[in-house]
Design brief:
Elements (H helix, E strand, L loop, with lengths): L5 E7 L2 H10 L3 E3 L7 E5 L4 E7 H5 L16 E5 L3 H13 L3 E2 L4 E2 L3 E7 L5 E7 L1 H5 L1
Parallel strand pairs: 1-4, 5-9
Antiparallel strand pairs: 2-3, 3-4, 6-8, 7-8, 8-9
Length: 135
């Protein structure tokens, strides 16, 4: 059965630092799709973050590249299997050099926190009670 995948392409200032950051979160780099211009970060079987040097990223678009430390264009949200896993991933991101968002979503059925990676891209990590999803 075909499973649709998502490839999130992100411009980065320092490819090696970004690779180190994401491996410290527990993700792996797929060398088959990585070189001096890009790194393929495997988040799950169906989610891959492509970290692209800014010049390489620019070769795919005629638009100005946003400075994610000053402008928000996208928030990447990842699910987590529990509240504890939300905290675990966000705490790893902060320890690896990311910046924590002060905003915590804490409702009975949903819990979430967020961090910005080294280039200012915002990643939200959210747990939702399966019973609430089922209705």
């Amino acid at each position: 059965m075909y499973q649709q995948m998502i490839f999130v392409n992100l411009p980065v200032a320092d490819l090696d630092a970004s690779k180190k950051f994401f491996t410290e979160l527990g993700y792996s780099i797929n060398p088959q799709f990585s070189d001096e211009n890009a790194a393929s970060v495997v988040i799950s079987e169906t989610i891959v973050a492509m970290l692209l040097t800014k010049p390489f990223y620019a070769s795919f678009t005629d638009k100005e590249i946003a400075d994610a430390t000053k402008t928000s264009e996208v928030m990447i949200a990842l699910s987590a299997e529990s509240r504890e896993k939300v905290d675990e991933l966000v705490d790893k991101a902060i320890a690896a050099g990311g910046t924590a968002s002060e905003k915590v979503q804490d409702m009975d059925f949903m819990y979430g926190r967020a961090f910005d990676d080294l280039d200012g891209h915002t990643w939200e990590v959210v747990w939702m009670d399966p019973a609430a999803i089922e209705g």
